[in-house]
Amino acid sequence: MFRFFDVVLSFLGLVVGLPLLLLLTVIGWFDTRSPLFRQERVGRGRKPFTLVKFRTMRPDTASVATHLASASAITPFGRFLRRSKLDELPQLWNVLKGEMSLVGPRPCLPNQEELMAERERRGVFDVRPGITGLAQVNGIDMSDPERLAEVDEQMVKQLSLRGYFRYLLLTATGKGAGDRVRGS
Q1: What ranges do the domains of the chain cover?
Q2: 168: Cα within 13 Å, side-chain hemisphere
C-alpha cells in the first residue's frame, strides 16, 4: 500500500519539481562545482544502495555521519538547503527506484555498526528506509543509535496510512531539525 503512494508521489515530485531541481543543481554547481552528493547507505534487508542528495558540504569533507561532521564544512548555500530540507529532493529518485520510501527509518552508513546491530535486533531492516519518519519529526538523529533504533522500531510497528501522510505533512511544514552537525 505504501509503495503505491511512494511511486505516485515521488514521480509527481520529480516531474512537478523538475524546474526547482534544475535551478538548485545550477546554483549548487556554482557553490561547490559538484551539486549532487552520492553516498553508500544501508537499505532494506541490509542491502547497500547509493543515496543521492544535494551537496551541502564542501566536496573534500570526510564521508561520516552528519553528527560527526564539522559545521565549518557546510557551505552557505548548503545551510539554506538544510534549513529548507531541499537537500533531500534528489532522494525522490531513490524512492522511485524502490530503494527507499518517503516514510521510514533514515538509512544509515555501512560503518554505523552499533546502529545497524540495534536495527537488526529490532526488525527495522525489514522495511525500506525513508526520507522522513518519526525520529526525524522529533529531532532524533544518529548520534544516539539505541534511541534512534527504538523510535524506528516503534514507527515500523505502528505505521498506518494516516501516519504515513502525517509524517510527510509534518516534514513539509518544517517539523524536526534534521541531523545535527557538530558546532552548529
Answers
A1: 2-172
A2: 17
Whole-angstrom distance, CA of residue 152 vs CA of residue 124: 7
> Which residue, chain included where needed, has cell 544509515?
108
Cell numbers at 155, concatenated: 514507527
From the CB of residue 3, how many other CB atoms can be counted at a distance below 10 Å? 11
CB of 76 within 8 A of CB of 115?
no
Give the CA dihedral 57, 47, 150, 67, nearest 10 degrees.
-20
H-assigned helices in the chain: 2-16, 18-32, 76-84, 91-97, 113-122, 134-137, 145-158, 161-172
Phi, psi (degrees; rounded to nearest 5) at 65:
-60, 145
Looking at per-residue confidence, does 184 or 10 come out higher? 10
| 123-177 residue pLDDT tens | 999 999 999 999 999 989 888 899 999 999 999 999 999 999 999 999 988 876 5
- In this prediction, residues 14-43 reach a mean pLDDT of 97
pTM: 0.90
Q: Which of 9-18, 62-71, 173-182 has the highest mean pLDDT?
A: 9-18
Neighbours of 93 (CB within 10 A): 16
